[in-house]
Design goal:
A hairpin with a 7-residue loop joins strand 2 and strand 3. The protein has helices spanning 13-24, 96-104, 124-129, 171-178, 220-223, 235-242, 250-255, 259-262; strands at 2-7, 29-32, 40-47, 61-69, 108-109, 118-119, 122-123, 139-140, 143-151, 155-163, 185-196, 199-202, 229-231, 268-273, 277-283, 288-293. By secondary structure, it is α+β, with helices and mostly antiparallel strands. It is elongated, with a radius of gyration of 23 Å.
């Protein structure tokens, strides 16, 4: 199953998984898109067999609401580390349109040192907390749909959509520089949307942990909108898949006249044997290849 959770402020991403294990009585879990402890918002959690599908999720973009304080700086670029004062005598808040243009033009950034990125096999945040000196290379990103929600001398609130792998905290010193200070830190950070191709889910689709039950999962159709789902009741094909044997699906294709039309945007599809078994397969026009077997949990 997949669960869309509204992570509260103060919990790590692993804290969420730890609590969900107790609530759902499930040990095997995984997630995409780690959220900082000081952030709240959307987390996608997979349980049991569905964890096999995490590598196939196409979550290329995420939308965030955040605020940048312009009265200090911190090593973590947020409230996790001590806020240090900065010289604000030359601080000048630019025009909204200028800020939107500059932020929209960003094509690369350096991730924060307080991040989960691996450096020589170690997490960057572990090295940073130990005071180690290290460099993180720049990475390509794309930014779109930038909005300035509120602006004052001490704080700017924004909403934007960023490509996968981008860090919102890295915008803080850049925005601080645009405002004439050597600083800037994130005071509010909320993930509002997760995109799966051109489709997306929002906070309105998410559950709070205190209201979570095993039945409050989200459907695979929302997460894999381009992967068609075909339902089949065929003991022979089911037996072959369970044994890792790719069946000849010529007869299967005949059962679904619209098969070619449905998979034209993606060669991957789910073959579901209701309440028994599900396989993720890939069609090359003549044959099928098993990508993952037994990939869905059933209540």
């Amino acid at each position: 199953m997949f669960y869309l959770i509204n992570k509260p402020i103060g919990m790590t991403s692993f804290d969420v998984i730890r609590k969900m294990r107790k609530i759902l009585g499930v040990k095997k879990m995984g997630h995409i898109g780690t959220l900082d402890p000081k952030a709240d918002g959307l987390m996608l959690i997979a349980t049991e067999q569905s964890t096999k599908l995490l590598s196939f999720i196409n979550s290329e973009k995420k939308t965030y609401l955040f605020s940048v304080r312009l009265d200090g700086k911190s090593e973590s670029l947020d409230l996790e580390q001590e806020i240090q004062p900065v010289d604000t005598s030359r601080r000048k808040i630019p025009d909204k349109n200028f800020l939107i243009q500059k932020i929209s033009e960003i094509t690369e950034q350096i991730p924060p040192k307080f991040s989960a990125i691996h450096i020589d096999g170690k997490r960057a945040y572990d090295l940073a907390r130990k005071g180690r000196d290290f460099e993180i290379p720049k990475r390509k990103i794309s930014v779109s749909d930038v909005e300035i929600l509120d602006i004052s001398e001490d704080e700017i609130s924004l909403r934007l959509t960023i490509s996968s792998g981008g860090y919102i905290r890295s915008f803080a010193p850049m925005i601080g520089e645009l405002c004439g200070i050597d600083g800037g830190y994130i005071s509010v950070l909320r993930r509002e949307k997760l995109f799966f191709g051109e489709h997306f889910v929002t906070l309105g689709d998410a559950e709070n942990l205190e209201n979570l039950t095993r039945e409050k999962y989200i459907s695979e159709e929302k997460i894999f909108p381009s992967f068609p789902i075909f339902f089949l009741d065929d003991g022979k094909i089911l037996g072959m898949l369970k044994n890792g044997i790719t069946p000849n699906l010529v007869e299967f294709v005949k059962k679904f006249p619209n098969f070619s039309e449905k998979i034209k945007n993606s060669r991957k599809f789910f073959l579901v044997f209701p309440h028994q078994y599900t396989s993720l397969l890939e069609w090359d026009g003549e044959n099928c290849k098993i990508l993952k077997n037994d990939v869905m949990s059933f209540l």
